[in-house]
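Workshop exercise sheet. Pairs work together: one partner reads the sequence aloud, the other fills in the structure field after running the prediction. Swap roles for the next sheet.
Pair: D.N. / O.F.
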Amino acid sequence: MAKLDGKIALISGGTSGIGAATAKLYQAEGATVIVTGSSQASADKARAELPGIEVIVSDAGDIAATKALADQVIAKHGRIDVLFVNAGIAKFLPIDQVDEAHFDSQFDVNVKGAYFLIKHAVPAIPDGGAIILTASVAGAGGGLGGGSVYGATKAALRSMGRTLAREFAGRNIRVNTISPGPIDTPILDKNGFTPAQKTAFLDGAKVRIPLGRPGASEEVAAAALYLAADATYTTGAELFVDGGLIDL
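Structure field:
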């Protein structure tokens, strides 16, 4: 029997990178999987690359859109057994260049959107369900220069995971957080990294990380499967998938 047989899994930000790798793994383990993308183009691309997985266009930073998303999934599937709150953006600027728009755009998606997606989805999560948040080592002191706003959003997610774990414990809904280290995903390209900058970032990871390499999306997906299916006595925890960057 597969680990997620008969489960309904919703993954925000699931059209590429960590979200897409997790969607494939959840599907392979028997789940009905729904992913979201921020644009029609990303959704169309995902539909071609993720056969059998439902794709919905949804703005992760729009509160009304998070409610519409939850309502749409609940209307079609009746419940959400696993909610993987993975949508996020990352922008890097030194503080003297940060303006309100730069600040708000990241907090809107990474924090406010995440919070309200959980708020709208949790009534449909059965007792014993699972919520997983994607934070980052950047929220735990492992960030890079220029990432003060991004790191703050991820620190907020770490706190959210711990406090909501206690709030939902009475229903046996487990809330856990994954904090990846440097992972080679399309987010690097979306952040406007030039090929040279991307190479420098990944090469720098090899020096900073005890295991000597950046991670792969599939390695984070394996952690997301563990927290969804196997970690039945784990809640309020943070799992670093970072090659030892924070832990060692």
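Discussion prompt: The mean pLDDT is 93. What would you look at next?
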